[in-house]
Amino acid sequence: xxxxxxxxxxxxxxxxxxxxxxxxxxxxxxxxxxxxxxxxxxxxxxxxxxxxxxxxxxxxxxxxxxxxxxxxxxxxxxxxxxxxxxxxxxxxxxxxxxxxxxxxxxxxxxxxxxx
Length: 115
Hints:
Layout: E1 2-8, H1 13-30, E2 43-46, E3 49-57, E4 60-61, H2 82-86, E5 92-93, E6 105-108, E7 111-114
Antiparallel strand pairs: 1-3, 2-3, 4-5, 6-7
């Protein structure tokens, strides 16, 4: 289980430059890990335009990370406790690598603030 977002730049040159830079970065990082340890960078088409999907898994297998603490789900992410119930066993947990922070922009007294 994972959450993700897909971005597209509608074929703008700046977005193309960003996807090219991500591809180069992925190739450089890939040289420093075992073969098969990194997922391929999957630039997909959305209509006729390149898009990039970013995602994060809700859980980590305890076998892959036996030491990290379990972090409770934010009630806005898991209002019915369904995800919390999955992580209540010893095999999977929601830890620091799975946590996603959500920000939004508000205006107070004419000043914009990120929260």
